[in-house]
Amino acid sequence: MIYFFGRFVVILALAASLAWLSMRQWGVLAGYLVGFLVLSIPLIYSYVNLARLIKFISLDRVESLPGSSGAWDEAFSRLEKHVRTMKLQVRTIEKQHERFIEAFQASPNGIIMLDDVDQIEWCNSIAEYFFGIAIQRDAQQRINYLIRRPEFIRYLNDRLFDEPLLIEQMGPNGNLSLLVQIFPFAENRRLLLAQDVTDLRKAEAMRRDFVANVSHEMRTPLTVMMGFLETVQTLDLDQAQKDEYLGLMMTQGKRMKSLVEDLLTLANLEANSQPASMTIVPMKSIFALLKDEAMALSNGAHQLNFQCDTDHFILGEERELISAMSNLISNAIRYTPAGGAIKVIWHLNHDGLGEFIVQDTGPGISPEHLPRLTERFYRVDRSRSRETGGTGLGLAIVKHIATRHQATLQIDSKIGEGSVFRLQFPNTRISSELI
Ligand code: ADP
To answer: What's the CA gap between 114 and 185, in Å, rounded?
Structure first.
């Protein structure tokens, strides 16, 4: 301050002395003129620097800050320091902001920020996908104009945000179930979070269906057995009649037993997500076992043909492999009417994959059923399945066992022409020698 004041005094003194000298030399007018000229020099210099400052402000680039001398240089360099610090602060805040946005974008949940009148301030791309919003177009739109479902409007108006709201049939294809909840924050602002619970809902529905199916499957034989028991208890039956009823009860008991066994097998398979072990399974001996079983089940009603074309072994769980293969053979026998032919083959196909094939000349299956055959309790012919002691779980078990062995189950069938069930094992599960 003293420095500036000193300079000011020096200029004043210089102007005064020069003016005084000129006055003495050339008269009063010359004195005033010289005084004025000397004083106008710093004024002009200040105007020039002011112009530079204005130019700098309009360019907004630290590099464009002009150099100067004296007080102006001091002012410019202090300004430069301030501008640099401020720019650094702005950049740091911008970076933090970008990181917040990136974190919100990385969230698997839909996030929408609403202002105090429920207008959208910002949302992440998952929310755009869930609700068909485009933030560029819909920013500042009221959320109830964009999510028009009555249950959501009610939820928004009631302001009871303690519980989430489930909205079904959302998303671009209307196949998503979303759990939506609003959380108030800051001054009257709200955060809307949306979680995709489609898979969870599907799993719940499957569990419900499964329990209903099991109860239904159990209830039928139980009801029949209770009926027989009542008859035996209340009526005075002779021994032959009693034997007949006991035999029928035994059939129902066996049906329940195989249902419970299949359920346990399925539960064990589902509980075990690990791949099957790599134990060497000799197909030749399995084939002999499967053939004996098939002959007993068919009881001479079908023409059976077993063909083992390779000495290769499967690497897997022997018990599971026998269960899957005998399920396919037993289906072929049960669904093919007497007189039909069943062919069972084990060979390496032209891609080197191990193939277990069961081919029958049965009724065949129409194409709309094929993708659903491996679902639990899915049956094409309900009465034929029950009549022949089917539980509706056989192909679900086969599918699980195949998956545990990285194998695939392929089904080709044509109504009236029979079916081909093919278990295809990758070459990592095939071995030509006893390791
Ligand atoms: P199930 O115990 O009823 O046989 P599966 O899961 O083994 O149950 O089979 C599901 C359904 O697929 C059967 O109910 C039947 O309708 C059909 N199916 C399976 N194998 C054959 C086959 N070889 N020929 C015709 N239909 C079949």
So the answer is: 10
Which fold does the domain 200-271 belong to in CATH? Helix Hairpins (1.10.287)
Cβ atoms of 381 and 332 within 8 Å: the answer is no
- State CA 302 to chain mean position distance: 48
**CA of 219 relative to ligand 1 center, distance in Å:** 21
Q: 421: helix, coil or strand?
A: strand
Confidence of residue 365 (pLDDT cuts 50, 70, 90): very high
Report the separation in Å between the CA atom of 212 and the middle of ligand 1, taken as the mean of its atom positions: 20
Domain ranges of the chain: 2-90, 107-196, 200-271, 280-432
CA distance 171 to 149: 13
- Pocket probe for ligand 1: among 266, 358, 369, 380, the residue whose CB has the most ligand atoms within 8 Å is 380
Same fold, 107-196 and 280-432: no
- Average the pLDDT over 345-352 and give the result: 91
Indicate the pTM of the whole model.
0.69
Give me the CATH topology for the region 107-196: Beta-Lactamase (3.30.450)
Architecture of the domain whose range is 280-432 = 2-Layer Sandwich (3.30)
Task: Tell me if 395 CB under 6 Å of ligand 1.
Answer: yes
pLDDT, one tens digit per residue, over 133-157 is 999 999 999 999 999 999 999 999 9
CA of 339 to the centre of ligand 1 (A): 19
Q: DSSP states of 173-203 as a string? A: TT-EEEEEEEEEETTTEEEEEEEE-HHHHHH
Q: CA dihedral defined by 87, 93, 99, 100, rounded to 10 degrees?
A: -150
HSE (side-chain half, CA atoms, 13 Å) at 208: 6
pLDDT band at 2 (very low <50, low <70, confident <90, very high): low
